[in-house]
């Protein structure tokens, strides 16, 4: 001990200290990370300083809406460009949000955000339904059906979404007949290059009272389903819980509907000279975007569904067959509940992709948040704050979708763990 | 039982075989029969309308008249030889690689050839037919030249050599751009300078995709390793980067690259006398940067899955052999991790290839942009469907070939088999 420490004592001094330190693994780790952090910080500093310097040359600021004068959260849009009059109109608005060209850029941006949320929500629902249908069809014992499903998947998956969107918009929906020669779907819906006209359902005088009965009917249906399921589990005889629930719902909702004198009315569209009269008209921009997004995303969802169903051991299907379940029952009661646990994580990714891909609306002229941001950049030249704002908005949307899907996933896991 | 049924099977007349097949696969139940009939009706209608468009109404002259535009944009004709030389080099390397790593099933080239028939019919003329044919011949020649090597003792040597040829070839192809670049305008070069605003069409699409894949792959692996590392600072940085990038659309990254990063690169700054920024960079370069930054995050996420799949015992075994941390990573963990995620990696490459079409929004003349320009020409006004279907076919052929090639590679490497 003393013999070996003797020469080391004499080596003391800065170089020896450094050597000792470098031979210490913890020190090396700290040093390595410190260097990494320094490089990142210097790089980030140069980046921001450079941008600031370039923007100063143009008379702009990086974050004009962050003001240090005000109070927390130090954001004040009133005296920067977001508080100014936008001056461009947006003819697609969602969720009844009101906007006119006299409103501010901020309000225009909010309109875009709501449009993005609307198309993403509708798109996710339709893409899921279509994707599950195609995915299950690929596994069909019917050769023709599975071939068509394969053809669908291989075609739409391998062509860029942007090409498909432009195709739907320019080559399909804008090439639809002029309004006078609208394609007539049984006199209920019409399609022309002005858009898709659908009947609109709206509430009349008794609607306010009737709408109270609807949650009541839903609640009663849930209770009945629960009771019938329990009876079925106890007695082992089928007591048709779904039929019972549907019957109760229809009885309550239907009878109150009739008593209140049909509080819902349908406004059917009619073909006018320049536009549709009545009903609701879905613009070709929205239809093209929705078609493109759902058909493209469904091809990926189909593959996820197929992969997950195939991952369920074959014995499960055989066991269900042995219990006398038919094809639909096998899928609904045995295969899909198990496949769900495998499906959800990749499905979440597809939902996120769909929401993010809705930014490609810019090529079909649907005013989503990215397109509104782009127009704003063109008008006021505030690219840096605007792009930052857009990115953080998408970040928020993505985090929301992830959180919702994670909630569903953990609930599902909890349920399957309980069983 | 089998000995009895075997001689009977071929004796069945074809119509009975067809009947039994249809019975089993199309009409096995009343529900299935209805499904079949409905599908046939829909398919028939679609096929009728589709073929009426393709063979009667469509005006394909728009494609023929814009051959050059579709393939190379405004690339100067005198410099076409560069593209042809590169194409021949790639064909040779593909031929070699295919034989050395894979086995050629004839189905893929056949599908590829069938899909290329419209290209030959509409698009190619004169010299282009010759050079396309010679590059296919170069592929075949390289494939058969490497034929005996596959099972000889020179196989590993040949494989290493091919990998190096790929890397050197990529560098050589990029060298004129990197040295006498369109990135730094105002400089002449070894060859006459083709500024990148003259790149276009399929050529630009391929350049963006190949550079994006080649550069984002190593970067993504680094990010994944950083995320799995035991250094908290590095791990946090990598996680933040990956999650931020994956939460936003590609188009916003491209816009950021164009409007924000370009400002930062333009402004002159030097640290310790070394100029780091202060370059006037081109739009194509910024697009490449955007794709690389974006794709790396997705590749990192895929590789992370692969890293998690490598059993811990592998790392411990490597350490027991006395290998250092980097060696364990490079020689033991990464080869297994990457091999396990080949399908996901290839689908990421395919989606990057498809995503290159977004540069159209940034006013670059890629394949998609050309399909927008062509129907604006006098004489071809409004022929959107023709142009879009044509480029759709090109994208489809390339993406589909990539996915099939990856399936084959997967089989050849025995992924998922023990």
* SSE pattern of chain A: HHHHHHEEEEHHEEEEHHHHH
Roughly how many Å is the radius of gyration of chain A?
A: 30 Å
Which structural class best describes the helix and strand composition of chain A? alpha+beta
Summed up, the helix count of chain A is: 13
Low-confidence stretches of chain A: 1-6
Helicity of chain A, in percent?
55-70%
Unreliable sequence segments of chain B = 1-5, 180-189
Q: What's the pLDDT, averaged over the residues of chain B?
A: 83
| Mean of all residue-level pLDDT scores of chain A | 83
Residues in helix, % of chain B: over 70%
Per DSSP, the total helix count of chain B is 18
Describe the fold and architecture:
The complex is a heterodimer of chains A (419) and B (418). Chain A has 13 helices and eight strands. With 419 residues, chain A is α+β, with helices and mostly antiparallel strands. Chain A is globular. In chain A, the strands form three sheets. Chain A has a four-stranded antiparallel sheet with strand order 1-2-3-8. In chain A, helix 4 packs antiparallel against helix 5 (143-157) and helix 10 runs antiparallel to helix 11. Chain A has a domain at 9-51. Chain B has 418 residues and is an all-alpha fold. Chain B has three domains: 2-57, no CATH class; 76-193, no CATH class; 199-418, MetI-like (MetI-like fold, Orthogonal Bundle). Helices cover 74% and strands 2% of the residues of chain B. Chain B has helices at residues 2-11, 14-25, 30-57, 61-65, 67-72, 80-101, 107-123, 127-145, 155-179, 201-228, 232-247, 250-266, 283-309, 312-320, 325-340, 342-355, 367-373, 384-413; strands at 269-271, 274-277. In chain B, strands 1-2 form a two-stranded antiparallel sheet. Chain B starts with a helix and ends in a 5-residue tail after the last helix. Classes of the chains: A alpha+beta (419), B mainly alpha (418). At the A-B interface, helix 3, helix 5, helix 6, helix 11 and helix 12 of A face helix 3, helix 11, helix 12, helix 16 and helix 17 of B.
């Amino acid at each position: 001990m003393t013999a070996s420490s003797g020469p080391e004592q004499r080596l003391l001094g800065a170089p020896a200290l450094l050597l000792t330190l470098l031979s210490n693994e913890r020190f090396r780790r700290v040093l390595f990370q410190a260097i990494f952090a320094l490089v990142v910080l210097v790089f980030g500093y140069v980046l921001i300083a450079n941008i600031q310097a370039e923007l100063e040359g143009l008379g702009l600021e990086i974050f004009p809406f962050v003001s240090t004068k005000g109070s927390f959260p130090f954001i004040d849009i009133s005296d920067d460009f977001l508080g100014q009059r936008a001056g461009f109109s947006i003819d697609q608005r969602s969720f009844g949000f009101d906007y006119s060209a006299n409103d501010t850029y901020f309000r225009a941006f909010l309109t875009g955000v709501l449009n993005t949320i609307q198309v993403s929500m509708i798109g996710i629902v339709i893409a899921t339904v279509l994707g599950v249908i195609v995915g299950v069809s690929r596994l069909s014992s019917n050769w023709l059906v599975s071939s068509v499903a394969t053809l669908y998947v291989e075609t739409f998956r391998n062509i860029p979404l942007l090409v498909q969107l432009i195709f739907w918009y320019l080559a399909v929906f804008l090439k639809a007949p002029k309004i006078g020669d609208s394609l007539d779907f049984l006199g209920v819906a019409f399609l022309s290059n002005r858009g898709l006209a659908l009947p609109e359902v709206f509430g009349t005088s008794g609607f306010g009272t009737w709408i109270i009965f609807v949650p009541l009917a839903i609640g009663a249906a849930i209770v009945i389903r629960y009771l019938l399921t329990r009876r079925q589990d106890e007695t082992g005889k089928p007591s048709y819980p779904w039929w019972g629930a549907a019957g109760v719902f229809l009885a309550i909702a239907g009878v109150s509907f009739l008593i209140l004198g049909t509080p819902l009315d349908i406004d059917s569209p009619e073909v006018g000279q320049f536009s549709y009269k009545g009903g609701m008209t879905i613009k070709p921009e929205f239809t093209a975007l929705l078609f493109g997004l759902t058909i493209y995303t469904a091809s990926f969802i189909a593959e996820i569904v197929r992969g997950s169903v195939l991952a369920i051991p074959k014995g499960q299907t055989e066991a269900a067959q042995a219990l006398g379940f038919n094809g639909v029952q096998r899928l609904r009661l045995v295969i899909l509940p198990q496949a769900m646990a495998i499906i959800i994580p990749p499905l979440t990714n597809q939902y996120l992709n769909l929401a993010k891909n809705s930014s490609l609306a810019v090529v079909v002229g649907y005013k989503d948040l990215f397109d509104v941001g782009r127009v704003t950049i063109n008008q006021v030249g505030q690219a840096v704050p605007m792009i930052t704002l857009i990115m953080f908005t998408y970040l928020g949307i993505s985090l929301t979708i992830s959180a919702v899907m994670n909630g569903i996933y953990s609930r599902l896991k909890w349920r399957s763990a309980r069983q | 039982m089998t000995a009895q049924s075997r001689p009977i099977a071929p004796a069945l007349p074809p119509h009975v075989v067809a009947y039994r097949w249809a019975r089993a696969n199309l009409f096995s139940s009343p529900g299935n029969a209805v499904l079949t009939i409905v599908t046939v009706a829909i398919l028939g209608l679609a096929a009728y309308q589709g073929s009426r468009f393709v063979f009667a109404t469509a005006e394909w002259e728009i494609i023929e008249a814009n051959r050059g535009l579709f393939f190379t944009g405004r690339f100067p004709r005198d410099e076409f030889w560069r593209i042809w030389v590169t194409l021949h080099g790639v064909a040779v390397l593909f031929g070699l690689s295919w034989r050395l790593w894979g086995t050629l099933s004839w189905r893929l080239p056949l599908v590829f050839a069938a899909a290329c028939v419209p290209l030959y019919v509409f698009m190619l003329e004169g010299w282009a037919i010759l050079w396309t044919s010679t590059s296919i011949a170069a592929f075949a020649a390289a494939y058969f030249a490497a034929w005996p090597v596959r099972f000889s003792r020179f196989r590993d040597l040949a494989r290493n050599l091919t990998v190096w040829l790929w890397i050197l070839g990529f560098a050589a192809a990029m060298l004129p751009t990197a040295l006498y670049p369109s990135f730094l305008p105002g400089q002449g070069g070894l060859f006459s300078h083709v500024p990148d605003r003259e790149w276009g069409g399929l050529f630009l699409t391929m350049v963006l995709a190949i550079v994006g894949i080649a550069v984002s792959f190593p970067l993504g692996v680094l990010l994944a390793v950083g995320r799995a590392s035991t250094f908290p600072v590095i791990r946090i940085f990598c996680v933040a980067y990956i999650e931020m990038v994956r939460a936003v659309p590609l188009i916003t990254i491209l816009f950021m690259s164009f409007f924000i990063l370009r400002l930062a690169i333009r402004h002159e700054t030097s640290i310790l006398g070394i100029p780091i920024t202060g370059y006037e960079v081109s739009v194509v370069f910024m697009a490449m940067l955007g794709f690389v930054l974006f794709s790396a995050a997705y590749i990192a996420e895929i590789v992370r899955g692969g890293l998690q799949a490598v059993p811990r015992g592998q790392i411990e075994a490597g350490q027991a052999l006395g290998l250092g941390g980097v060696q364990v990573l490079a020689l033991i963990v990464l080869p297994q991790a990457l091999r396990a995620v080949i399908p996901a990696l290839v689908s990421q490459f395919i989606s990057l290839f498809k995503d290159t079409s977004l540069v159209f929004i940034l006013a670059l003349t890629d394949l998609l942009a050309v399909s927008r320009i062509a129907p604006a020409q006098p004489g071809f006004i409004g022929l959107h469907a023709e142009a879009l279907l044509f480029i759709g076919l090109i994208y489809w052929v390339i993406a589909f070939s990539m996915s099939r090639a990856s399936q084959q590679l997967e089989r050849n490497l025995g992924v998922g088999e023990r």
